[in-house]
Specification:
single chain; 379 residues; globular
Length: 379
């Protein structure tokens, strides 16, 4: 297991290094134009990087027994923070959304921290009620109510991207925890219908969907970002145009230092570098699943699963968005995109994953629990 931990740490450090280098390259034009400082965004990210390192080390050393007891209170705090963003004078309104809280010169995004709260709360519930997870009332209903509450708070911001991500991860945890597929399909179907209704009444989101379906028609409007993202990948070819030589970052590609930083990587370093980034996230997935499979108890197992799926699902969605496989959503690329809250939360997740790995059982010792619950006895 020590080898798995070493590989995981090495991969994360490589991703963070790529993020710092590419952030400087992608943001230098904007930083110079807005703040007369080409390294403005790198400096701010550097502060969050130090804070993230400290937070990751702390989470590595936390007692999982204490974390299990604190799971529900932490989820409650996350819910309160999601409510606070909608309070005028406390929440910050930027680009049509209430997603931020301001603390002096810094801003934080509660929806990022809610990911951890939800993972811990669901892991706590599944670990306590796993023998009943195949039943609706005693196993599935309480977490569905909790998920519905968080979904409402996230959609109120509005933050459709995080809502979809959280829904995907929690559905996966519930399935692995033993929930019957029929129950999950029914709830997922109801959720998709509700999401579709909300989208139909949101003109901005509908324009994004139309632009996704027909980018050429909306090339000068909603599809501008997608068109220039694809142009960046095409310009980079196999080996790229070289570090700092991107054309798209010169105000052609909006958010080139945040959600759309991967196209800049592809433009400057080519297809090979993009594939390297994807391979690194795949390694995180493998390490996370390996740690979860050897966890000493169900709480650690589902915590490891939750953070692994949250990081890798988010990276997958980001890749799908920047390549035109999904409509545009505001989800950062973990460890690489600019954003203090995203970097901090991703680092905390890695710290929790390593914490679970430290308490993993010897693979030679047989355990009574398995990663996937045997449904043959309950279905």
């Amino acid at each position: 297991m020590q080898r798995t931990i070493s590989v995981l740490i090495a991969v994360v450090l490589i991703l963070v290094t790529i993020g710092v280098v590419m952030l400087f390259s992608a943001s230098m034009v904007r930083g110079d134009a807005q703040f007369n400082d080409t390294a403005y965004f790198v400096k701010r990210q550097g502060f969050w990087l130090v804070l993230s390192l400290v937070a990751a080390v702390v989470c590595m050393r936390l007692d999982l027994r204490w974390l299990r007891k604190a799971a529900l209170p932490l989820a409650g705090i996350c819910a309160v923070l999601l409510i606070a963003v909608r309070i005028p004078g406390i929440g910050v309104y930027i680009n049509g959304s209430w997603r931020w809280l301001r603390f002096g010169p810094l801003t934080m995004q509660p929806s990022e921290f809610a990911k951890i709260g939800i993972i811990l709360a669901f892991s706590w519930w599944i670990s306590r009620r796993r023998r009943y997870m195949h039943t609706f009332k005693r196993g599935l209903l309480p977490p569905l109510v909790a998920l519905g509450l968080f979904a409402v708070l996230l959609l109120a911001e509005p933050d459709f991207g995080t809502t979809i991500l959280v829904g995907m991860v929690t559905m996966a945890l519930l399935y692995i925890g033993g929930v019957r597929p029929l129950h999950l399909f029914g709830f997922a179907g109801a959720g998709l219908v509700a999401m579709a209704i909300l989208l139909l009444h949101n003109e901005n989101r509908m324009r994004r969907i139309f632009a996704f379906l027909d980018p050429e028609k909306y090339a000068q409007g909603e599809a501008w970002q997608l068109i220039n993202s694809l142009n960046a990948f095409a310009s980079g070819g196999a080996y790229g145009v070289g570090l700092g030589n991107s054309i798209q970052k010169y105000h052609y590609l909006p958010e080139s230092h945040t959600d759309f930083i991967l196209p800049i990587i592809g433009e400057e370093f080519g297809l090979i570098s993009t594939l390297v980034v994807l391979i690194l996230f795949a390694i995180i997935l493998i390490c996370g699943l390996r740690i979860a499979a050897r966890a000493s108890d169900d709480f650690g197992r589902f915590t490891a699963l939750g953070v692994t799926l949250m990081i890798t699902f988010q990276a997958t969605i980001n890749l799908a968005v920047v390549t035109g496989c999904m409509p545009t959503k505001g989800l950062a690329l973990p460890f690489i995109s600019y954003g203090g809250s995203s970097l901090l939360v991703s680092s905390v997740m890695i710290g929790l994953l390593i914490n679970v790995a430290h308490t993993a059982r010897d693979p030679k010792v047989k355990t009574r629990t398995a990663l996937f619950k045997d449904r043959r006895r309950t279905a």
